[in-house]
Write a structure and sequence with these properties.
The protein has six helices and seven strands; from the N terminus they run ααβββββααββαα. The strands form two sheets. A five-stranded mixed sheet has the order 1-4-5-6-7. 45% of the residues lie in helices and 17% in strands. The chain is an alpha+beta fold.
Length: 170
């Protein structure tokens, strides 16, 4: 049995070719170490044992690059927030205790297999840091109680703002 089916193997091959053909992608990964583990002993109040992150590429001077794939290339900025790429990048900055450049290489995993380098703005990193800090509180509580709920037991749902605006305009 194959781990990848033939179509998946072709897609990976095409994405690798797209990275190879993109001169900016080649420039940002040149000279970088691959799959470096960054670890910080965040023993906050002796509760949280430690935090780690593994950027796909790490330069000795601090900048990192992560590889992402998407079927929705034109709307990848939405995916940055929805999938937490900004939080991952902010975590690296927190572990390194420095704000270095955080870059993504985004490959389209369907035809025409485009590839683009995306530099994350400081605003993205600030939003990611805020998200991490708010979730560290929850993580600390889970460690303290030794309880690991899969989700909140209750929440409030509100309609999306676009729907509220549409209803107000009708």
């Amino acid at each position: 049995d194959f781990v990848l089916n033939p179509l998946e193997a072709v897609a990976i091959e095409r994405m690798a070719e797209a990275v190879y053909r993109n001169p900016d992608a080649q420039a940002v990964i040149r000279g970088a170490r691959t799959q470096a583990s960054l670890i910080d002993d965040w023993a906050l109040e002796d509760v949280i044992p430690g935090i780690q992150s593994r950027p796909d590429w790490l330069h000795d001077s601090g900048p990192t690059v992560d590889l992402k794939s998407t079927a929705d290339f034109a709307r990848y900025d939405d995916a940055i927030g929805n999938l937490g790429a900004h939080s991952q990048a902010a975590m690296i900055s927190m572990i390194q205790k420095a704000d270095h450049e955080r870059t993504l290489i985004v490959c389209e995993n369907v035809w025409p297999y485009r590839c683009q380098v995306i530099d994350l703005s400081m605003t993205w990193l600030e939003i990611g840091r805020t998200w991490i800090e708010s979730h560290l509180t929850t993580l600390r509580e889970c460690y303290t109680r030794d309880e690991w709920p899969l989700c909140a037991t209750r929440r409030v749902s509100s309609p999306p703002q676009w729907l509220v605006r549409r209803m107000e305009n009708e």
